[in-house]
Each structure stands twice: as structure tokens, then as C-alpha cells.
Amino acid sequence: MPKYLHFICLLLLFLPVRVKGQDYRKWHEEAIVVDLHNDVLIAMMRGMDIADDLSSRTHSDLRRFKAGGVDAQFFSVWCDQKYGPGKAFRYANRQIDSLQAVIARNPDKIMLVQRPEQLYEAVKQKKLAAIIGIEGGHMLEHKLANLDQLYNRGARYLTLTWNNSNTLASSARDENRGSLPSAKKGLTEFGQQVIRRMNGLGMLVDLSHVGEKTFWEAIHTTTKPVIVSHSNVYRLAPHYRNLKDDQIKAIAQNGGVIGLNFNSVFIDPGFNARQNSFLKKHQAEVAALQKSGKSKASILAILARKYPQEATLVRPPLSKLLDHLDYIVKLVGVDYVSLGSDFDGITATPRELNSVADFPLITEELLSRGYTQQDINKILGGNFIRVWKAQSKE
User: Fold this and answer.
1) pLDDT of residue 2
2) Burial of 160 (0-12, 13-18, 19+ CB in 10 A)
3) Are 337 and 252 a contacting pair, CB within 8 Å?
């Protein structure tokens, strides 16, 4: 054999092998797949039922969860700052009611899960494990008793803030824009009480959406591993919702986990410019839709349906999302990264990820990048399960 051919053969042995066909799907099905964040409960509050085929209306429904091999889904309970005292906590409970109603109507397909061992039981029974996350501490309405009630109803994480600051802490958006509702930046005394209470309950502290000062004060307050349910890497996409390197290192040191967000603006710094160009190209139609009272999100959805090829090219490829994963793995290791899609809370996902049915494509891409089956099992769910189990340990 010529020397150059011998060298090429040796080189090929060390290159990642792209697994084709059904092989990656088999690996995906064998893993426990956990998504840390999905907002489809809001669609359910508008009268939709995830037991129906919602393909043309949402990213998620029970059929597509099954098709995507999703074993456990955190359903986000969310409302914005317009829901003030006397409204936010009640609305949170209405969303939980809505989820429980779906579970009651479909006991063969979905079950409420509150402990890791129940997650394994759901997998064994081939049911979707429904777990509840509360996105925004304002839903507590400044009452620890409300935290206890939400926990008792199945909530297993609390995101300290949404985009709005509240009586627990300052948000990333407000810290970044200098639009704090009070002079206090960071974690409040009540926020410290909430974290200590969550540690005692075994409830996960979620640091997505929080400001940097809040982040550091929360990390120094908690005695348990945290999650960052749906955020990405600031170095690759410098958005205030993403994590800087020292924050990623702190999460690893804490033993926590980061769920990667599928929102294009948190993945690709060039996304906004491409989207603006797309809107400018169709500015006459945009103006007409604005005049009719359509929101920006609705306008984008309408234009995407009318010009699907153009709209697809605006979105980043899946590889850009996996670049964020690679970055975290190289920085702190494979044990601290997971998935937090934000499906049904975002309008622009990577080109290949059009719904929850497309999760297997992530496994295919991981395999093509040389990740082992053990690595993939950790990323898809194992890392989160480790963190969840740690909540009950003294």
C-alpha cells in the first residue's frame, strides 16, 4: 500500500462517522429524552388540545411528542407582568388545571411526574412524563405559601424571573436595559427566602432569564445544583439571555445543567439582520398587516407561510445550535448540558427543527460530531436526571 494511502486510512479511523438511516433513531429511542422547557400550555389556554393534531398551529402535541421520542417534557406555566397581584397565581393554577385535564382525558398517553422514579415508570409504560415548571417568580405574588401550593400541585422548578423583574430578583432584560422597577439589582431578601425554601422542598432553581447580578447572588445562595432551563452561549451569540463563560463554569462547579434554547436569536447573531431584510423585502405587505392590527409574530408567521423558502433561509441551520453545545462541552465537559427547546414560546427555530417530532435529528447531528452513545444519553436526559436526583439529597 502506498504510504499516502496508509496515512489516509489511519486518518479515516479517527474521523467521526455519520450514522445513517435508522441507526441514529435507534440510539435516540434508547435514550431518555428530557426537554426542560415548552410553552404549549399557553396554546391550551386559548382552547387548543394537545391530544388533537395541532400540526398547522403549534410545535407540539401528543402525537408529535411520541414521534420525536420525547420521554419527559417540562410544561412551562407562564404569564407576563400584566398579571399582577390577585391574577398571576390564579392564572398559574388555571394552566396546571388545563394540563391535568389533558392527563385525565389521556391516561394511556401522558402522566404527571413529580419524582425521578416516576419518570422511569412513565418511560416503562411508554407514556409522556409531564413535569411542571413555573416561569416567573411574580406568580408567587410575594407569598411563600403560594410556592408551597405550586410545589404540591407538581411544580418542580421555578424560574426566578421572566423578562420582568419582580419581588424576588432583577431580570436579564431589565438589568441589560437599565429599566429596573426599583433601585435594587440582584436577588432580594424575599428571593433568598424563596431559594432556601426551594432547596428545602427539593424544587429546582432555574436561572434562565435572570440578570447577571441575580445569577451570581443566586448561585451563592443555593445549596443545591441549579438548572438554566433555556439559554445558550453568550460568546457565540451575544444576547443578554445567554450565558457568559464564567457563568457556564459556575454552573458546572455547582453541579447544575444548561438546557439549550432553540430560539434563532439566541443561536445566531446574524439572524436579526436576515429577518429584517426579509421583512424589508415584503414591506408593503408588512405595512398592510400592521394596519390591520397584526403583531410582529403574526406577520412573520403569515409571511413564512406565503414565502416558505425565503423564510427557511432566514433561520440558522441545526449545526449552529450544536455549536453552542460543543462550546459548553469543550469549556466544562459533557455533564452540564441538556436541551430546553422553548418550543411554542418562540417563532423561529433552526431550519431542521420544525416541531417536537424533530428531536431525533439532534441525535443524528451529535453522532455525526463524534459523540458517543454515553455522551448522547447524558445530553438528551441523563444530565438533567442527575441534577433532579440531587435535589432530594442532604
Assistant:
1) 46
2) buried
3) no
State the pLDDT at residue 84.
Answer: 87
Neighbouring C-beta atoms of residue 124, cutoff 10 Å: 8
Residue 147 has pLDDT above 60, yes or no: yes
Query: What dihedral do alpha carbons 368, 373, 375, 377 form, nearest 10°?
Result: 120
pLDDT (tens digit per residue) in 123-146: 999 999 999 999 999 999 999 999
Report the predicted TM-score, pTM, of the whole model to 2 decimal places: 0.92
pLDDT grade, residue 19 (50/70/90)? Answer: very low
Longest CA pairwise span in the chain (Å): 79
Classify the C-alpha dihedral 384-217-240-130 as positive or negative: positive
Specify burial of residue 287 (Cβ count, 10 A radius: 0-12, 13-18, 19+). exposed
